[in-house]
Amino acid sequence: MFRLSNLISSVVEDRPERVLDGAIAIWNFTNRCNLSCLHCYSKSTLDEVDTLTTEQIKKTILEMKANGIKFIIFSGGEPLTRKDLFEIADYCKENGIITYLSSNGLYFTTKNVQRIVDTFTYVGISIDGDEPTHDYFRGLKGAFVETLKAVKLANATGAKVGIRFTVTQDTIGSLEYIFDLAERENIPKVYISHLVYSGRGLDNLKMDLSKEQRRKAVNFILDKAFEYYRTGRDIEIVTGNMEQDGILFLNRFAAEYPEHKESMEKRLVAWGGNSAGRKLVNINSEGDVRPDPFFPLTVGNIIEQSFGDIWQHGELLDQLRIHPRKQISGICADCEQIDICNGGSRSRAYAITGDLWSEDPSCYLTEDERRKN
């Protein structure tokens, strides 16, 4: 994740940044879902049966704690379809692990919303555009109305709530709408995810942006981040799955605050770009462990091995933990900014070329931008 707003404010105001002391796990606790989203990497349906038991999950949580996992993002499928979800989240909290929830919001009600926001430190709800766009993308007429109700319910509690939005050919026309919605409803966070080619996202590869569209979208997002900081608007902007945003951001930041450019560059190098297998791990609903949710290869299974044995050993993880990943070929091989982006997504590279160590095909940087200035 690339925390635009936090980076701007902390560097300009010379404050310590929010440092991740440990790793984040994105855990797909279930593959069951009440929607059929076009970009879904887990191809979820309502017919799925949960594989992992509560006891297995709790055992793994203790192993994750012992191996430096500090945050768990509860994902799916739709995580709220699991009846033991609150029990699992409470167990995480008892063991000092911070929990986030990623949901489509359709199971939020006036009766359970307080329980949800009291349980999870942050609640992210997916909205993919205006009403027609969202309903088409999510595969359900009326989904937008119910999801927006969930956002408003959660936001009214005063809890940390955010909109999650994936930018694609189908949704890019709603990018401005998403920010207008956040401003109108005073939603404290907007998370913009770029498409990664996995699951239905791989089946629908044609819905990804062109490099020209991506640059335009990223520049719009950057405009909003700097605007919000200048005007004191309390809306946090985060982007995901496109670490090259960091280089475009650095250039914009240097133009706005040239006296702080060196400090910002140090922050970005320390952030380190793509963190799959380094500070990020995924467990799917079958117990398979991957370096990120989209990764084409598994490194183990928690039913068959302890999490520690999986996370602490393995040639693939050793390769992914090299920083910067100078073993990547193509335009990355001589890129002077790779210490910031770390080569971007290995999942996208593999999906297009079959080679984990080829360049990220979605990199939109020009040759000049790939040079240190």
Describe the structure.
With 373 residues, the protein is an alpha/beta fold. It contains 15 helices and eleven strands. The protein has an eleven-stranded mixed sheet with strand order 1-8-7-6-5-4-3-2-9-10-11. The longest helix is centred in the middle third of the chain and has 21 residues, at 211-231. The radius of gyration is 20 Å and the shape is globular. It starts with a strand and ends in a 20-residue tail after the last helix. Mean pLDDT is 92; it is low at 36-44.
Compact overview of the structure:
It is built from 15 helices and eleven strands.
Low-confidence stretches: 36-44
Tally of DSSP β-strands: 11
Query: What is the subunit arrangement here?
Result: single chain
Bin the helical content. 25-40%
One letter per element, helices H and strands E, the order comes to EHEHEHEHEHHEHEHHEHHEEEHHHH
So what's the overall shape? globular
Radius of gyration: 20 Å
Structural class estimated from helices and strands: alpha/beta
Distance from first to last alpha carbon:
24 Å
Strand count, sense and barrel status of the largest sheet are: 11 strands, mixed
Q: Roughly what fraction of the amino acids lie in strands?
A: 5-15%
Number of helices: 15
Quick check: average pLDDT? 92
Q: What's the arrangement of strands in the largest beta sheet?
A: 1-8-7-6-5-4-3-2-9-10-11
